[in-house]
Amino acid sequence: MAESPEQVEVKRVETQVEQAPNKPSLIGRLYAVIFPILGGLILDFADLATLGPVGLYMGMIVGCTIGWLISGIYDFSRKGRLMLSLLAGIYCTIPGTFFLPLATAISAVARFRERPAPPTNDSQKKTG
Questions:
Q1: Domain count of the chain?
Q2: Which of 15, 50, 55, 63 could make a disulfide contact with 88, Cβ separation 3.0–4.6 Å?
Q3: What is the three-state SS of 23-42?
Q4: Residue 71 CB partners (closer than 8 Å, separation 6+)
């Protein structure tokens, strides 16, 4: 007589392999450093371009325009964009501000005081 086949229960065992954290690429690291101060750099160059009597006439127009564009890059609300645009216009109009890169310094200090990003779930997993 033919024997009936036996049923075998198979368990699948999953193992978790802990991976080393990914090191950011050079482009990613440059982006993390330069992007936060990019707006300040652009505004300081605009302030330098409106040097002297040109700044008294064109500083508000140039500063407001650049301030509006920069604040759009950083996803400010419409009210925030308007406020930053006006501050940028005033900054480019005031004589003597071209000596100090205030916009770059303020954005660098703001980046320095920023809280570090929370760790991702991948880095918190433990093997079990």
A1: 1
A2: 63
A3: CCCHHHHHHHHHHHHHHHHH
A4: 39, 80, 81, 84, 85
Taking only the tens of pLDDT, the chain with its 128 residues reads 566 677 777 777 776 655 556 777 888 777 777 877 888 888 889 888 888 888 888 999 999 999 998 888 878 889 989 998 999 999 999 888 888 888 888 887 777 776 666 666 655 554 44
Say whether 108 sits in a helix, a strand or coil. Answer: helix
With beta carbons less than 8 A apart as the criterion, state whether 94 and 74 touch: no
Q: Give domain status of residue 4, yes or no.
A: no
Q: Is residue 93 part of a domain?
A: yes
Residue 15: inside a domain = no
Query: 3-class DSSP state for residue 70?
Result: helix
* Residue at 73: amino acid letter: I
Q: Amino acid identity, residue 68?
A: W
Structural domain includes residue 53: yes
**Residue 61: which domain range?**
26-113
